[in-house]
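Fill in residues.
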């Protein structure tokens, strides 16, 4: 089994920054892709960024240049550095890890961008 624990969400003004963290416990391998998704009210869950075993990343166009995903394999932790936040970034952010065909999800952390 795998468990994911997110932290770092909160309220921030437009233009501000937040850093999300997600610690994975259980049997984790560095080759298992990890990532962040988000879901705004009334919208479907969407990919924000994903990082693969070799360190390559896949970042949504809507956050490219503002958000950076990174990973510490020794700590089984993935991070999402979010800069230049916009009101449209407001959503619940979910951590994800893929093992084979199975996906595991965190409980989600709220990010609210508002003045």
């Amino acid at each position: 089994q795998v468990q994911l624990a997110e932290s770092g969400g909160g309220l921030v003004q437009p233009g501000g920054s937040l850093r999300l963290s997600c610690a994975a416990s259980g049997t984790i391998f560095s080759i298992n892709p990890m990532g962040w998704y988000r879901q705004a009210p009334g919208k479907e869950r969407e990919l924000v960024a994903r990082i693969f075993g070799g360190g390559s990343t896949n970042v949504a166009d809507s956050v490219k240049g503002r958000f950076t995903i990174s990973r510490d394999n020794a700590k089984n932790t993935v991070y999402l550095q979010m800069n230049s936040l916009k009101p449209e970034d407001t959503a619940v952010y979910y951590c994800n890890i893929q093992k084979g065909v199975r996906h595991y999800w965190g409980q989600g952390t709220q990010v609210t961008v508002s003045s």
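The two ends are 40 Å apart (CA to CA).
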